[in-house]
Design brief:
By secondary structure, this protein is mostly helical. Helix content is 80%, strand content 0%. The protein folds into two domains: 2-164, no CATH class; 170-363, Up-down Bundle (Methane Monooxygenase Hydroxylase, Chain G, domain 1). The protein has helices at residues 2-17, 19-41, 47-57, 62-89, 95-115, 120-131, 133-136, 140-164, 170-193, 202-226, 241-260, 267-296, 305-323, 332-363. It is elongated, with a radius of gyration of 29 Å. It starts with a helix and ends with a helix.
Length: 364
């Protein structure tokens, strides 16, 4: 029994870890079957294109499905209308003439798709409208009309399934990605600040910054899809804009800290600032970590007092150094890094307060 229980627990863990992938697989399967049944019910001439459209447009989130469907429908309509017009106006009684018509139709559609990827379906649709009539023995106008109907049925199916079957909303995914970004920052902040007291590998610092940048890029992509979900039942949700802007500013803070900590401080300043930086590292990393956890669970933000106090202590110590003129006579690059560090930590404190406000707003 213990072995069965262990295997069941392992299986359940795997399912939970891959629930997003399993949900997408289920939605794609249902969309494929449902679009095939609808095609037969509506007597669509080629159910193949309806099913393929539904499979392609059923995305990982509802917002992404809506965006993909809108782009695909617009591209299809444009390609169908243009290719049908070319086919109707330019005679092509043989293969050579058809090749010329194909070039006339494809060239501008391909150029348009290259300029704006949202119209990428236009080229594909133009080719189908011109070549399918030779297989199905219908005219170019009928071919274009059928193509639009096939895509409309497939797109409608994809959006409906994405909304109704184990829906994964882009807004939820964006908030989860934002929480992951805060966790990544909490993990890497101690390594960046360590550069003020120890020599650090520039390659390692670069990897840290790249990791944070990739997470932010993934967040930007997901956040762009949220706009397509702002329909009636989501319209009252707080905007993610303030959170995205705050995370971007925090990203800039990390870049400044990484550059300022590229070379260790002189020993005299390490003795003065070292304990203060240790306290800043501990409290700031903990605040980022706990903020990510509360954001993911839609709870109120953690207390900011400890991180605030640590950053205030550093700011006070830096102000004393300036008043005492201890930076006079230092190399210019050392002075620049000291002031850059002071500015970065001051901005970090300001952005922590903005983060606190954003997390509280999203917890309502």
């Amino acid at each position: 029994m213990s072995q069965i229980a262990t295997q069941w627990k392992s299986f359940r863990t795997q399912v939970l870890e891959h629930r997003a992938e399993l949900g997408l697989a289920l939605r794609v399967t249902i969309a494929a079957v449902l679009s095939f049944l609808l095609s037969n019910l509506l007597n669509v001439p080629m159910p193949l294109w309806t099913v393929l459209t539904a499979v392609i447009l059923t995305q990982v989130s509802f917002g992404r499905s809506v965006k993909a469907t809108i782009d695909y429908l617009v591209g299809t309509l444009l390609g169908a209308v243009y290719a049908a017009a070319i086919a109707a106006l330019v005679p092509h009684p043989n293969e050579i003439a058809l090749a010329g018509v194909l070039a006339i139709a494809v060239a501008p559609l391909a150029l348009l798709a290259a300029i704006n990827p949202s119209f990428s379906a236009a080229t594909f649709t133009g080719v189908l409208v011109l070549l399918v009539p030779g297989v199905t023995h219908v005219g170019p106008i009928e071919s274009a009309l059928y193509r639009v109907i096939e895509v409309a049925v497939g797109g409608f199916t994809a959006v409906a399934v994405s909304l109704l079957v184990l829906p994964a909303h882009a807004r939820t995914l964006a908030i989860e990605t934002a929480a992951q970004m805060l966790d990544v920052m909490a993990r890497f902040l101690p390594e960046l600040l360590l550069g003020f007291t120890q020599t650090r590998d520039a390659t390692a610092i670069g990897r840290i910054q790249d990791s944070i940048g990739r997470t932010l890029a993934r967040l930007d992509t997901t956040a762009a899809e949220v706009q397509h979900e702002r329909i009636s039942f989501l319209a009252t949700a707080p905007s993610l804009g303030p959170l995205l802007r705050t995370l971007l500013r925090l990203r800039h803070d990390f870049v400044m800290i990484g550059r300022a900590a590229a070379v260790p401080l002189p020993e005299a300043f390490q003795a003065r600032f070292g304990p203060l930086l240790v306290n800043v590292t501990k409290t700031a990393a903990e605040y980022l970590r706990r903020s990510g956890a509360t954001l993911a669970s839609r709870r109120n933000p953690p207390p900011l007092d400890a991180a605030d106090a640590a950053l205030d202590d550093y700011a006070d110590a830096f102000a004393v150094v300036r008043r005492e003129g201890l930076t006079l006579g230092l190399p210019a690059d050392t002075v620049e890094r000291l002031f850059a560090m002071g500015f970065a930590l001051d901005q970090l404190r300001r952005n922590f307060h903005d983060l606190e406000r954003c997390v509280r707003e999203l917890a309502r």
